[in-house]
Design brief:
By secondary structure, this protein is α/β, with parallel strands linked by helices. About 45% of the residues lie in helices and about 20% in strands. It has a five-stranded parallel β-sheet with strand order 2-1-3-4-5.
């Protein structure tokens, strides 16, 4: 019996190149190879319009051009990828940001930087399991 190999597609929306490098490198160590990067919310929206939807979005809040909140608002308004789970990853420690994230049904987690990659890997493993079961 062959074991189903589920490849999760991950979209990182983050303006900091160093954070993107670290995140991508760590995700690759866990075996995730299908990773796309957008440097702001607008690039993230363009990505969703022009590509197959990812299985997970890692979303920064504070970015130029279109920030994380504007990105979430735009996806809601455009009805774009609303079923895609989003993990908000931020350096913000504002309580308002955490409670704001809870207003979006597709935001499944809120992580403060630096990212705890063990925690993120567990979350991805759970997503994979759900995908196999569905």
């Amino acid at each position: 019996r062959t074991k189903t190999k589920i490849m999760l597609k991950i979209l990182i929306i983050e303006d900091d190149e160093i954070t993107n490098f670290i995140t991508k490198t760590n995700l690759e160590k866990f075996g995730y190879k299908n990773i796309a990067v957008a440097l702001n919310g607008q690039e993230g929206l363009d990505y969703l319009k022009n590509n197959t939807c990812p299985d997970l979005i890692l979303l920064d809040i504070n970015m130029p051009i279109l920030d994380g909140w504007d990105f979430l608002e735009a996806t809601t308004r455009l009805n774009l990828g609303l079923e895609i789970p989003v993990v908000v990853i931020t350096s913000s420690i504002r309580f308002e940001d955490r409670s704001n994230a809870e207003l979006y049904s597709n935001v499944i987690d809120y992580m403060e930087k630096p990212i705890n990659f063990e925690e993120l890997n567990n979350l991805l493993a759970n997503l994979k399991t759900k995908k196999i079961e569905s």
